[in-house]
Design brief:
single chain, 512 residues, alpha/beta, seven-stranded mixed beta sheet, 21 helices, 38% helix, elongated
Length: 512
């Protein structure tokens, strides 16, 4: 065995000592506090997320000057693998100055621009960020010696990443300021219900600015951010479940915008009983049905991953596989607001379509939409503005859109379910009904004067005759006979059509 040179001993000893200091993070007391609160440390989270033994850290020996002396870095980052795929991973270390952005460093490591984000962009690999930090810090900024004019600070490549690689974030503890904003600038985000919360300014800032005392979960817990505001996509019960959702979500994305998602080989996927569709969907448009059950039945067994299930529930969106091929799925849910597009569901649609467009993922739209939401509340909420954005998103998307007309399609709401791309197609079920607007409402609007002039005892009969006349004129079979829809199908044939069309779409050059 070769003898090592004597000069290595002090060098290796110093390296070992510095590594130990870095791994001590904010110290035993702060680590113990995180564990008491049911939270893991940054490195523990990375170890739980990445494949065993795959994480290579960068910037391990970075130090953070504090009132108690030098500690380890506020941000842990490096290269890892998730299910064998290389990814860039970053995690804020809350035990060191609250995980604040390292403005004292020559080069920021990440979470608000910086090294790991540039590495993800340069190598075109997914970026995963685990958030629990205070954003900026007066204490750390003091080390810089002057106050920064924030308008001079570039955010490269925070936004550039969104067009090139998947960006996924998890909020696993209190997250404020720039860290909270960073969590929302992603293609998929998840929050743990037990400890996750995020806000522009935390309870102390709110108390100082507004004189109000507020609990951190009341201010920015999952019910606020994933259910009401829609800032975060999904909420998981625990930290472990949130990390599991990150892994699952990543499996539907390609490695970058220049390639496609992986395809499950034939024989490795299962299909559900398609006869069940006829019991899930009632052809009578007056009766709502379980839109989630519809998606689960059509997709490969067990592959539907819903995004934003608690927000804008009139529309369900998520990823699923059909004969092994990933598609972005949108489905009207008439159990909520009769399936009408309103502010939240419209924003949800716009964002999801833009994500699928960025990664060339074809869309499947299971449509049953009565139109845009109407009424005083809808007008005050600016529904027309946001719903029109949803129309714009689907009309301008470059990916194929396969619209399945399950039941209703009226007015601008119907235009929000498909586009004129030559690769896009429309399939109709015999339960479909469509037009400029529902016949009953259209009769009321178009023949208001005649109805009001009729004797009260004759008004109902007149309205019925008018409705029957327009029903005959707007029969969907007339549309089919004039090739106004590419094919009328038995609902049980839907999966077969979608599988074939998605195989065709995946054969196209990426970005075509």
């Amino acid at each position: 065995m070769a003898m090592e040179h004597e000069g290595w001993k002090p060098l290796m000893a110093e390296l070992a000592e510095r590594r130990k200091r870095a791994l001590d993070a904010g110290g035993a007391d702060r680590i113990a506090r995180e564990h008491r609160l049911g939270r893991s440390t940054a490195r523990e989270r990375i170890a739980a997320l990445a494949d065993p033994g795959s994480f290579l850290e960068f910037g391990t020996l970075v130090t953070t000057p504090t009132e108690k002396g030098d500690m380890g870095p506020t941000f842990i980052c490096g290269l890892g693998e998730i299910d064998g795929r290389p990814v860039a991973i970053g995690a804020e270390d809350f035990t060191v100055e609250g995980g604040a952005v390292g403005v004292h460093l020559q080069r920021i490591k990440g979470s608000w621009g910086g090294f790991i984000e540039e590495l993800a962009l340069g190598y075109r690999i997914p970026l995963v960020l685990l958030m629990q930090g205070t954003g900026g810090s007066v204490l750390i900024q003091e080390l810089k010696g002057y106050a920064e004019l924030q308008a001079t600070n570039p955010l490269y490549p925070v936004f550039e990443l969104l067009d090139k690689v998947p960006v996924l974030t998890a909020v696993l503890g209190p997250t404020a300021g720039s860290s909270a904003a960073r969590a929302s600038i992603a293609h998929f985000s998840v929050m743990s219900k037990d400890n996750g919360c995020l806000f522009t300014g935390g309870p102390p800032v709110v108390r100082q600015a507004l004189g109000r005392k507020v609990d951190k979960f009341e201010l920015g817990g999952w019910e606020v951010q994933a259910k009401t505001a829609g800032l975060i996509d999904n909420a998981a019960e625990t930290e472990a479940e949130a990390l599991a959702e990150l892994r699952q979500a990543l499996s539907y994305f390609p490695q970058n915008a220049a390639c496609r998602p992986s395809v499950t080989p034939d024989g490795a996927w299962l299909q559900n009983d398609q006869d069940a569709l006829l019991s899930i969907v009632n052809p009578d448009p007056r009766w709502p049905y379980d839109a989630q059950a519809l998606i689960h039945c059509l997709a490969d067994s067990g592959t539907f991953f819903e995004i934003g299930p608690d927000y804008g529930q009139a529309l369900r969106v998520g990823f699923a596989r059909f004969e092994g091929h990933v598609a972005g799925v949108l489905a009207t849910d008439a159990r909520h607001m009769a399936g009408a597009l309103e502010t939240h569901s419209s924003q949800k649609q716009t964002r999801f379509i833009e994500t699928c467009d960025a990664f060339d993922i074809p869309l499947v739209y299971l449509a049953d939409v009565p139109g845009f939401m109407v009424g005083p509340e809808a007008e005050r909420a600016g529904t027309l503005k946001f719903a029109s954005e949803a129309v714009r998103a689907i009309q301008q998307t470059k990916v194929p859109v396969f619209t399945v007309q399950v039941r209703r399609s009226f007015g601008l709401g119907g235009q929000a379910t498909g586009n004129g791309n030559p690769t896009s197609l429309r399939l109709a079920w015999p339960s479909g009904v469509w037009g400029d607007m529902p016949v009953e409402g259209g009769v009321e609007a178009a023949y208001r004067a005649e109805l009001e002039a009729a004797a009260p005892e004759d008004r109902a009969a007149l309205k019925r005759r008018l409705a029957e006349r327009f029903d005959a004129q707007t029969s969907i079979w007339r549309t089919v006979e004039r090739f106004g829809v590419e094919e009328m199908i038995d609902p049980r044939e839907t999966r077969r059509y979608l599988g074939r069309l998605l195989r065709l779409a995946y054969a196209l050059p990426v970005g075509s």
